[in-house]
Amino acid sequence: MRAYRLEHTVRNVVPLGVFGRIADQSAFAQEAEELRRQTGVIPRGERAKIAGYLRSGTPIIALMACSEDVLGNRFTCSGGPALMSDGAFFWRLDAADYVEHYGVALPEEFLAHGTARRWTTARPLTREEIVEVDDRLGELRRAGNL
Prior knowledge:
Layout: E1 14-15, H1 25-29, H2 32-37, H3 44-55, E2 58-61, E3 66-68, E4 76-78, E5 83-85, E6 89-92, H4 95-102, H5 108-116, H6 127-142
Parallel strand pairs: 1-6
Antiparallel strand pairs: 2-5, 3-4, 5-6
Helix pairs in contact: 3-4
């Protein structure tokens, strides 16, 4: 696995697969079959550290809705649809729960990125970086890719 570098600036932040979308509960529930096909991919021994990393991202878009597990009702997540980022990727806050409870697959590029950082807590983004990521999300929204 090659190490992923944060050389592409926060201006080029990329979505974390199915979790890199803004979606309310009913819209995200439509992803259940895709999520179900990807369960069990991340080994149990890896899940907690990856989930911890996902939870440590910087909030970019805070959404106060509560998300519910669309696979098996194992969890609810206050603010689950909120978008988080580490400056390289962005994801829904509840992505951590899907990884922890189901081992849902994540893109190889992200796994290499986290492994290179030993899944330590994501560095908090600066105010300027948050604005850059938010601007990028705005571009993606306008292009219909978010």
